[in-house]
Amino acid sequence: MEQDFLPINGTDYVEFYVGNAKQSTLYYQHCFGYELIAYAGPETGVKGKASYVLKQDKIRLVLTSSLDPNSEISEHVKKHGDGVKVLALWVDDATRSYNETTVRGAESAIPPQTLKDEFGEVVVASIKTYGETIHTFVERKNYKGPFLPGYKAVKSSLKVEPIGLKYIDHCVGNVELGQMNKWVKFYEDVMGFKLLITFDDKDISTEYSALMSKVVSNGNGYIKFPINEPAKGKKKSQIEEYLDFYHSAGVQHIAIATDDIVYTVSQLRKRGVEFLYVPDSYYEDVLDRVGKINEDLQELKEQNILIDRDEEGYLLQIFTKPVQDRPTLFFEIIERNGAKSFGKGNFKALFESIEREQELRGNL
Ligand code: FE2
After folding, report:
1. Span 41-54, mean pLDDT?
2. What global pTM score does this model have?
3. Domain, as residue range, for 110
């Protein structure tokens, strides 16, 4: 087997650029049960921005706002609204990761640099991907601090219970019409990923709107990036709506794994998170399609959780509505029972649900 030139241990963190990180932090604490663990800003010697680090099990989110109207962060928020800037990848050698990818054609975003504080040192380096999104390689084997040098450990006075969110299962990008294959090739050639699955517009279309999708994955399978592009339908594709409002390619959704989706989703609902809705009729014949499952169908129906099966097992999934006013980023909650796929059997029901929302927004 050929040597993996870009070994990745997992997702290190996802950083969002947002209009008001202080308030967004409370949203993710209260609604999703994340714990606030670290902060960087003027009080810790960082000028011009504030960043809050949230953690639940293996997931780390960073929420960053600018204090300066002319910064790159402010420009990003003005153009895209709240959205994902960084999909950070945990590696053993950040400099080598940067060199191996840039030599294969990756555009540099930030060359390797060593960050230090009293807890040790971290090497970070970033390359560009679709839209204005970047991948940051994080090498933290010589670091014992709460997050990265410059961040101080903090505790919130808001006491929240975790709700069973475990790790990031996959992160999905939306790219412009005709650009999907270019970005699949980028992940193959520049990052050594392999094409896992292809969905064409026959798999993913309703009466009105369509999209195409290909999933790429790294060597150990810990990193999975589906890439979507709009396809021609009778009306506007949900991917086109995203691109219209994000004003470029960008991250469409982040799927988070749980071991107990009924509990996780019931907690999210209790705390005010809104989900896409599928009609009760979905549950009338779903077991004919997916066969025997361990969960109580009535409980899944009450939480409006979707079910799908592939050759290796089944999965349970649900999608939030967009988590900001623009119809851009949303989250998926997923529980895998052997299945390694992405819920193809639910695409039709889901896209009809998304179209109902698009229609309400006047964007169909
Ligand atoms: Fe997904």
Report:
1. 96
2. 0.96
3. 10-153
